[in-house]
Amino acid sequence: MAMRSVSPLIPPERTRSPELQARAFENLGYIRRTMEEAGSFTAISGWAQVAIGFTALGAAWLAHHQPTRSAWLAVWVGALALSIVIATIGMVRKSRAAGASVFAGPARRFAMSFLLPLGAGGLLTIALDRAGLHQVLPGTWLLLFGTAVACGGAFSVRIVPVMGICFMALGAAALFMDPAWGDAILALGFGALLIGFGVTIARRYGG
After folding, report:
1. Which tops the pLDDT comparison, 154 or 139?
2. 131 vs 57, 63, 125, 137, 144, CA distance in Å?
3. What is the Cα–Cα distance from 42 to 40, expressed in whole angstroms?
4. Which of 39-43, 135-139, 178-182 has the lowest mean pLDDT?
5. Quick one: which of 131, 135, 118, 127 has its CA closest to 81?
6. How many CB atoms lie within 10 A of CB 33?
7. Distance CA 173, CA 169 (A)
8. Vertex 149, ends 141 and 34: CA angle to 5°?
9. The dihedral of CA 10, 15, 17, 20: what is its sign?
10. DSSP states of 160-184 as a string?
């Protein structure tokens, strides 16, 4: 019995057509974008959170010894600026180590959800400072920072929104506490709480 020659189902010239290749690249790009959009933002640096926590502890001590409320506020604004620099450096380094982009879909959604409550906090800080209501600033900062972390954490790993809820609970409690505890409650939140969650994130999520 003579064997029949086997012909390919798709002619070679058809598989090499520019149209099919372009369509294949388009499909691969769509799959890649879909996977990026569906992923979580994992570039939050735990060690950066630890560094920010120690910065906050130092700021709490320094702010507590300031003679005026304006000087007290300047210390905390300076600590905020330094914390933003530390967080940005930590996030970029962790993203590069993982070979990921800090501008991917989950990162953009995290940033939008995180920055909006922080912007509201900045405006409230100016308004409360002008009104002389410095005693409610610690609770306001903790509550809005917790809101920012909880909202942004919806697009990140599970522990991040949990951290945000802890900040919100601490901020709510601070609003009804004796104002004399302001620096202590800020040290507890932006110091101890960030250090604890930072170490956990670093150990569980690669830095």
Report:
1. 139
2. 27, 20, 10, 11, 19
3. 6
4. 39-43
5. 118
6. 12
7. 6
8. 155
9. positive
10. HHHHHHHHHHHHHHHTTS-GGGHHH
DSSP conformation letters of 81-141: HHHHHHHHHHHHHHHHHHT--TTSHHHHHHHHHHHHHHHHHHHHHHHHHHTT-GGGHHHHH
Among 26-35, 95-104, 195-204, the least confident range = 26-35
Residue 53 to residues 18, 50, 60, 83, 186, Cα–Cα distance (Å): 56, 5, 11, 9, 10
C-alpha distances out from residue 161 to 140, 149, 169, Å:
18, 6, 12
Rounded Cα–Cα distance for residues 133 and 127 (Å):
9
Phi-psi region of 40 (alpha: psi -120 to 50; beta: other; left: phi over 0): beta
